[in-house]
């Protein structure tokens, strides 16, 4: 019994729960607690459940599933915590432990295996995904499926997300993707650009605009071959071994290039890259290499602030609000750079919404697998967004971008409000076309 309990404590990282003094500072910043009002859906409540497992007071681990499934993983609690509780590590370990013991249905097991192990890590498969979306839109199939009413019958409310899919690029355009671009003026840095999997499949144009903006700002840009998915979706799903394998693949790929920084444009991906040092800390072969990689990992906004923007046209009187990426804010601690860049756009009115740091409810694929909960959180976010009377919502993460587009659509504001990635907005203001 003692051996079994000791193993559980190690597996669930019980020792890290002892830093939690149950003070409650995490409660007002936790989206699930403020939305659902249940102590088990708060950070300290979840931590207490893990403590009870480690102390042998909970033996039926299934009671942890709903509280931890419904956690967004936004990690705002870490920013608010006065005692430095490593909630992210506890969440990560608990999800991995629960997944290991969970019996998935055959369809779900096959879907998880195919998406997490075959699709997201494969650049070829993600290109096929992007090209398929283009074909779906351009062939008339989209129009036919919408008129048939089939969208309302799709599982996981996928019909709602179909309506706000970004405009895809053609296979020809995808084939012309920039691989290496020199700085327009004297180069200040050499940067290796991280394309991501979903970013490159669904938001390919934002990646290309990012490369052009970096070049205009004075960076030589290299798109590293053989890079793969960052592993964030795998870590969030409890597949930690697969996340570590992907981290090693990326480290190996980027080590082959001499660059000052590894630059990304997605808050969720950036947080994962930033945490490779933590992810591989127990691996003697990879720990130092992972820490070196993480030290070079930067969000694109950090580099653009450092280098300076190209000439920006005035946008007189345009009201803009910024929806902060949770993982950029709470993990990477990148908070001011996007705001600084927006303030450099002449003439705009930058209005900060109330509770700007609160999660929008996207959280990777949380808004798909926990749709109803996600929509409750989004509706609360949209109350604050609407109060700004902004014409543009700026985001720095693809999930946030889709979620805010969905929020605009749900509120019937598509004629008066739009959501854009920061890079889209800056490129538009600088006259840089895809």
Features:
434 residues; alpha/beta; 4 domains; four-stranded parallel beta sheet; 9 strands; 52% helix; transport; metal-binding; iron-sulfur; EC 1.1.99.14; 4Fe4S_Fe-S-bd
Q: How would you sum up this structure, described in words?
A:
It contains 25 helices and nine strands. It is α/β, with parallel strands linked by helices and 434 residues long. The chain folds into four domains: 100 residues, Fumarate Reductase Iron-sulfur Protein, Chain B, domain 2 (Orthogonal Bundle), CATH 1.10.1060; 57 residues, no CATH class; 135 residues; 119 residues, Rossmann fold.
Strand tally:
9
Instruction: Name the poorly predicted regions.
Output: none
Give a short account of the largest sheet. Answer: 5 strands, mixed
Q: Name the beta content range.
A: 5-15%
- Indicate the radius of gyration in whole angstroms: 22 Å
Note the total helix count: 25
What is the fold's blueprint, element by element?
Layout: H1 2-11, H2 31-36, H3 43-54, H4 65-69, H5 76-80, H6 87-101, H7 106-119, H8 123-138, H9 141-148, H10 158-162, H11 171-175, E1 180-181, E2 189-193, H12 198-202, H13 204-217, E3 219-223, H14 232-236, H15 240-255, E4 261-264, H16 267-274, H17 276-279, H18 287-296, E5 297-299, H19 300-307, E6 319-322, H20 326-330, H21 337-343, E7 349-350, H22 366-369, H23 371-387, E8 392-395, H24 398-410, E9 418-421, H25 422-430
Parallel strand pairs: 2-3, 2-4, 4-5, 6-7, 6-8, 8-9
Antiparallel strand pairs: 1-3
Enzyme class: oxidoreductase
Cofactor: [4Fe-4S] cluster
Keywords: 4Fe-4S, Electron transport, Iron, Iron-sulfur, Metal-binding, Repeat, Transport
């Amino acid at each position: 019994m003692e051996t079994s309990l000791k193993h559980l404590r190690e597996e669930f990282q019980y020792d890290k729960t002892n830093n939690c003094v149950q003070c409650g500072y995490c409660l007002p910043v936790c989206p699930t607690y403020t939305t659902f009002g249940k102590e088990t859906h708060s950070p300290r409540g979840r931590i207490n459940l893990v403590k009870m497992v480690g102390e042998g007071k909970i033996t039926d681990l299934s009671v942890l599933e709903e509280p931890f499934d419904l956690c967004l993983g936004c990690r705002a609690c870490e920013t608010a915590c006065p005692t430095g509780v490593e909630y992210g590590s506890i969440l990560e370990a608990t999800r991995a432990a629960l997944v290991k013991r969970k019996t998935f249905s055959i369809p779900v097991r096959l879907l998880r295996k195919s998406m997490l192990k075959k699709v997201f890590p494969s650049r070829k498969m993600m290109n096929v995904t992007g090209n398929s979306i283009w074909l779906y839109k351009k062939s008339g199939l989209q129009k036919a499926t919408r008129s048939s009413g089939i969208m309302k019958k799709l599982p996981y409310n996928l019909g709602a997300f179909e309506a706000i899919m970004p405009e895809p690029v053609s296979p020809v355009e995808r084939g012309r993707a920039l691989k290496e671009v020199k700085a327009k003026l004297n180069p200040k840095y050499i940067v290796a650009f991280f394309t991501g999997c979903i970013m490159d499949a669904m938001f390919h144009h934002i990646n290309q605009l990012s490369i052009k903006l970096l070049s205009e700002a004075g960076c030589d840009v290299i798109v590293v071959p053989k890079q793969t998915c960052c592993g964030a979706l795998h870590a969030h799903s409890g597949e930690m071994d697969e996340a570590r394998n992907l981290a090693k693949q990326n480290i190996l790929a980027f080590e082959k290039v001499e660059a000052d920084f590894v630059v990304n444009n997605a808050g969720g991906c950036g947080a994962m890259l930033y945490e490779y040092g933590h992810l591989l800390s127990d691996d003697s072969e990879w720990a130092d290499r992972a820490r070196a990689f993480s030290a070079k990992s930067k969000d694109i906004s950090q580099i653009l602030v450092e280098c300076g923007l190209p000439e920006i046209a005035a946008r007189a009187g345009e009201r803009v609000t910024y929806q902060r990426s949770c993982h950029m804010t709470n993990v990477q601690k990148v908070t001011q750079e996007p705001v600084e860049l927006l303030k450099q756009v002449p003439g705009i009115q930058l209005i900060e919404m109330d509770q700007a740091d609160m999660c929008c409810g996207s959280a990777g694929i949380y808004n798909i697998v926990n749709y109803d909960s996600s929509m409750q959180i989004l509706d609360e976010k949209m109350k604050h967004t609407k109060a700004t009377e902004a014409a543009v919502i700026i985001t720095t993460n693809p999930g946030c971008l889709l979620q805010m587009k969905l929020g605009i659509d749900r509120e019937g504001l598509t004629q008066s409000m739009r959501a854009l990635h920061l890079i889209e907005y800056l490129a538009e203001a600088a006259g840089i076309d895809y």
